[in-house]
Amino acid sequence: xxxxxxxxxxxxxxxxxxxxxxxxxxxxxxxxxxxxxxxxxxxxxxxxxxxxxxxxxxxxxxxxxxxxxxxxxxxxxxxxxxxxxxxxxxxxxxxxxxxxxxxxxxxxxxxxxxxxxxxxxxxxxxxxxxxxxxxxxxxxxxxxxxxxxxxxxxxxxxxxxxxxxxxxxxxxxxxxxxxxxxxxxxxxxxxxxxxxxxxxxxxxxxxxxxxxxxxxxxxxxxxxxxxxxxxxxxxxxxxxxxxxxxxxxxxxxxxxxxxxxxxxxxxxxxxxxxxxxxxxxxxxxxxxxxxxxxxxxxxxxxxxxxxxxxxxxxxxxxxx
Length: 320
Known about the structure:
The protein has 13 helices and 2 strands, in the order H-H-H-H-H-E-E-H-H-H-H-H-H-H-H. It is mainly alpha-helical. It has a single domain, classed as ABC transporter involved in vitamin B12 uptake, BtuC, CATH 1.10.3470. A two-stranded antiparallel sheet has the order 1-2. Strand 1 (127-128) and strand 2 form a beta hairpin. The longest helix is centred in the N-terminal third of the chain and has 35 residues, at 38-72.
């Protein structure tokens, strides 16, 4: 078996171990499950299993979205959170809940629309004569983040006390409210991403080398851009709507995957998704274990991991 295949197998095994760890972390110990405690098994199937599935799917979606954006914009710092896509999705979802009282599926639709609008505007403004200005893109992303933060603040100001409590926890990123239908939506979206990824590999490899190289490889540039942008916005919108603001997974996971398997996307796609799943599963388990019986927001833990990683990446780029 080739080295890259071994990496995928090992990464998959690590994800399975992380999923088991996630299932067994909580108020009921594994001994209660082994003893056949009916309440412990009820908690496992009705609460922990949907939470584990949702955490794994959201991690995979965010990692895939970050990998696509880094290849599309040819920028190792591109991330749904850094350039405003996650913030746009969050702002739309928060407005839908705080102002219109929309929850559930309607909130997901709002998050998707917000993420798609920000990504389309960002790409439109950063591209002139078919060339994307990467520095301008990041600056525009900062502006979008600022506008989205203002909209989120306005929504919090207008929200009722009950909605305010929900929004505060949701903005920090958490899987505590995971439900089976939300987990199935996230898993379904991840399945869709896996189905379409093989048809996007050549475009992603081409964009990584530049649009001219992609065109020479026979890639329909505009069609590929539209598909990548649409699926990225959909993935981020579902992740944000179901779990709130969970940052830096899209930045960290693809870079870890590149260190293991290089930049060819037929290997990078599955490994990035697996790394993202493992990161979020372990972070969710740690969030329940560190201050048990209370719980930390997962977004705080991952931001604590992603911030130092981002600084290391900046220093590494400066040395190069």
